[in-house]
Design a protein that fits this description.
Strand order of the largest sheet: 1-2
Helix content: 55-70%
Distance between the termini: 38 Å
């Protein structure tokens, strides 16, 4: 489990936007848009599990977030989600609450990429990888 020194309380007050590193990818940018659109529901599920004291469910959701956030380029969510997963698995509700609070703050900063016009998608450096 992460120790207290890994928790960055300053990140809670940060308001700078978080963009997907894959925003220019012709296929994955749509997934990044969907990820941001679904964030409120995803976070509500984590909050609900935490509020119900269901740390096993919270760990499952955090583990999924760790993988899904990174796969669409929102790497800023990976380490806090990993720490939340570890805290929930350790049944440490206090630490889990802190990491959940940080993830909530980070989630409010997520910015969906703009829809990519077909011409830009074809010109993307990722287009050749299809």
């Amino acid at each position: 489990m992460q120790d207290d020194t890994a928790f960055n309380a300053n990140a809670i007050d940060d308001t700078s936007p978080i963009h997907s590193r894959l925003a220019a990818h012709p296929r994955l940018h749509r997934l990044a848009i969907r990820f941001v659109e679904q964030w409120p529901q995803r976070f509500a599920e984590m909050r609900s599990a935490y509020d119900a004291g269901d740390l096993a469910e919270l760990a499952r959701l955090a583990h999924g977030l760790m993988a899904n956030g990174s796969s669409v380029g929102f790497d800023a969510l990976s380490e806090p989600a990993k720490a939340l997963d570890a805290a929930a698995q350790a049944r440490d509700a206090t630490q889990a609450g802190r990491w959940l609070e940080l993830l909530g703050a980070l989630g409010r900063r997520l910015k969906a990429p703009m829809p990519m016009p077909p011409v830009m998608a074809a010109a993307s450096p990722f287009a050749a990888r299809r």
